[in-house]
Amino acid sequence: MPSLSDLLGRNRSASTAKDRLRVVLIHDRSALPPGVMDALRQELIEVVARHIDVDQHAVRVEMVQEGRSATLQAEIPIKASPKPHSTE
Amino acid sequence: MTGRVITITSGKGGVGKTTATANISAALADMGHKVVCMDADIGLRNLDVVLGLENRIVYDLVDVVEGRCKVRQAMIRDKRLEELYLIPAAQTRDKNAVAPKDMVRICDELRQDFDYIVIDSPAGIERGFKNAIAPADEVVIITNPEVSAVRDADRIIGLVEAEQKGPAKLVVNRINTEMVERGDMLAVADVLELLAVELIGIVPDDSAVLVSTNKGAPIALEPKSKTGQAFRDIARRLTGEEVPFSASNGNEGFLGRLSKLIGTKEGRNA
Ligand SMILES: Nc1ncnc2c1ncn2[C@@H]1O[C@H](COP(=O)(O)OP(=O)(O)OP(=O)(O)O)[C@@H](O)[C@H]1O
Ligand SMILES: [Mg+2]
Predict the structure, then answer these.
(1) Average pLDDT of chain B?
(2) What is the ipTM for the molecules in this complex?
(3) Which of A5, A17, A68 is closest, CB to CB, to B147?
(4) Ligand 1: residues whose CB is within 6 Å?
C-alpha cells in the first residue's frame, strides 16, 4: 500500500529516492546483485516451462520487503490449454 | 550501580554522531543522571571540541588502554554539568590501538560509577565500529534523510543485529520540514518504512547546531531551542520514558507534519 507521502510526493525527488532505495536495500540485504534477477527469471521460466506451458511475457520475479527480511516472489501465469503431461 | 552503555553510530560519516553524543549526554546529565561520554573515534577526536572541553585534556582513551593512567584520570568533568564527564579519544594514534575487549573492560569499570556511558563511534564498519559496539547495551543509529546515508544505515543495522546487539534504534537527523513538504526530502515515515527499525528521535536541520558547536555549548542545554528539545526527548526515551513524537519539535513534529500534509493535499484537491 502506498504511504501518504507516496501519494503526495509523486513525481518529486523524494519518491524517486524512496523507490530506488527500496530496490537497493533489498539487494544489499540479500547480497544479490540486481543484475542477477534477470538471469534468475530466465532460468525459472525454463525450469517451469519443461513441465507446464507458461505465459513467458507475463512472468514476474521480484524481491519483496517484509520488515527487515525479503521474500523472492515469482508469479508465473500458466497458459489456458496446458500441453498434455509427457513426463509422469 | 550498573550503568547502561549506549553506543551512537552510523554507516556514513558526517551524519551527526558526535553532535548527538554530546547533546544526548548533556541532556541525560541535565536530567540528573551520572553520565560519562567516551570518544571512540581514535585519531579523529572531536567530542572534546563539541563539548568545549578540549583545553582540559591530559590523558586519553589509549592512555587508559595501555595502562599509563587510571580511567578516573582520563575523565574530564564538564564545565556546566556536575554529573557529566568525557573520556577523550587519542588524536595521534589509530583505531588498532584499542580492541573490543579493552572497551568492554573499561565500560565494565565505568558501569559501577555511572548511570549512562555514551560512546561516540567512528563512521564505517571496521575496527573502530566494532570497538564502539562491543560494550553496548543499546545501539542508536544516526542517519540523514538522504539516499546514501539511509543505505549505509541499513547496512549498519544488519551488522548490529549480526553482532547480537540489536535491535538498533534510529535517529533521523537534519530533517528539513519545508523540503519534506515539497516532496524533495525523504520523510521520517519513508525512512522508517525502508529501514524497518524503531524510531527514537527526529532532529531538525538547524543552523543553530553549528553555532552551538562553535561555542562548545550543547544545544540540548538551550531550553527554548526546538532542536535542543529534540535531543532532550531522545534522552528521555533512552531512559525508558514514553515521549510522543508530536512533542519533539512542537507543532512541526512528525505527526504534526503528517496532519499538515493531509491538510495541504485536501487544499490542493479542493
Ligand atoms: N541537526 C543538525 N542541523 C544542522 N547541522 C548539523 C545537525 N547535526 C549535525 N550537524 C552538522 O553536521 C556536521 C557533522 O556533524 P558531526 O560531526 O556530529 O557528524 P559525525 O557523524 O560525528 O561525523 P564523523 O563521521 O566525521 O565522526 C557538523 O558540522 C555539525 O554541526
Ligand atoms: Mg564524529
Answers:
(1) 92
(2) 0.83
(3) A17
(4) B 10, 13-19, 41, 46, 123, 173-174, 203, 205-206, 209-210, 213
